[in-house]
Design brief:
Elements (H helix, E strand, L loop, with lengths): L1 H40 L6 H24 L5 E6 L10 E6 L5 H10 L6 E3 L1 E2 L8 H7 L4 E2 L4 H6 L2 H15 L6 E6 L7 H7 L12 H10 L5 E8 L7 H5 L5 E9 L3 H5 L6 H30 L1
Parallel strand pairs: 1-8, 2-6, 2-7, 3-6, 4-5
Antiparallel strand pairs: 7-8
Helix pairs in contact: 1-2, 6-8
Length: 305
């Protein structure tokens, strides 16, 4: 009997994997070429209509993924909490912070945001432009792409530091012509116990936050955004990898969103040029991260009770 059930479970897993893989592949081949074709027209003329159409096509692709999550992964339970003072809508402009544990995080963000927020973008490396289809799609859809230089390169040529800032400013300002959600994984990398120990992080569930990218985004966009949103993602049964998620092996996902007030002093200061401002900014972000760490502990405790 046990062997029979194991075979049934394996068959279901294989069937689910083949279904998900086939649908996502077919959907990508259906939606991808129009985005790339329309994007090529921007080489000759910028068009807001083209941008809006590409976003609609991308949202259609995301809606297929969400349909799979709702109908092929029915065992995954979603616990979504949005604080009452956070008013989200598809025409808004948002900066978003989020903890980062897995490639699943981005899919979770897209699942949550599709019907609640504008298309989510995030900072990407310029080198991704050379990845076929993916890099070009990021560029066409307005993902801020940055040419980041190492400390040694900047030491040899200090002008590169200012060039990086100018590139970031240009990329962010291009978002202002439309609704947007700009996501920042403030830890800069995915959480692992090894990285946590190596950093000697003062937080139980998080790596140390990196302030530079957020400070830059707030400096460029702070006066233009409707809210700074803090998203916390918790996997109560353990951090999954991408295949586990799409095979339906993630029983529960908890999402919590809250609004972070942006102090006036942040919008008036300069992270790059003012040492005192940088110190104060680090303290402000550390407090946000301390609260997020406690929230994760509270959510985990709720599920383990």
């Amino acid at each position: 009997m046990t062997s029979h059930r194991a075979k049934q479970s394996l068959f279901k897993k294989i069937t689910r994997g083949m279904t998900v893989g086939s649908v996502i592949t077919g959907s990508t081949f259906l939606h991808g070429p129009p985005v790339l074709a329309l994007g090529l027209t921007k080489l000759f003329k910028q068009s807001r209509k083209v941008d809006e159409t590409n976003i609609q096509i991308t949202n259609s692709w995301l809606s297929v993924n969400n349909w799979l999550i709702d109908h092929v992964l029915p065992n995954t339970q979603w616990d979504i909490h949005i604080d009452e003072d956070l008013d989200l809508n598809l025409q808004g402009r948002y900066l978003m912070l989020c903890n980062h544990q897995s490639w699943v995080d981005t899919t979770v963000n897209q699942y949550f945001g599709l019907t609640r927020m504008p298309l989510t973008r995030f900072f990407t490396k310029w080198e991704l432009i050379f990845i076929p289809f993916v890099g070009q799609a990021f560029k066409i859809l307005g993902f801020p792409m940055m040419k980041r230089h190492s400390k040694s390169e900047i030491a040899k040529n200090p002008a590169l530091k200012h060039r990086d800032i100018l590139e970031a400013r240009k990329s962010c300002e291009q978002l202002l012509s439309q609704p947007f959600t700009l996501l920042n994984y403030v830890e800069g990398t995915r959480f692992t116990p090894e990285k946590h120990a190596q950093q000697k992080s003062p937080y139980q569930h998080l790596l140390k936050p990196k302030a530079g990218g957020l400070a830059l985004a707030l400096n460029i966009l702070g006066n233009q955004v409707d809210a700074l949103v803090d998203m916390t993602i918790v996997y109560p049964d353990g951090i999954p990898d991408y295949s586990e998620f799409w095979l339906g092996e993630v029983p529960r996902i908890a999402i919590h969103l809250r609004k972070i007030d942006i102090p006036a002093w942040i919008l008036a200061g300069s992270y790059e040029d003012d040492r005192e401002f940088r110190s104060k900014f680090h303290q402000w972000l550390a407090q946000i991260w301390k609260e997020k760490d406690q929230l994760i502990s509270d959510i985990k405790a709720k599920y383990s009770a």
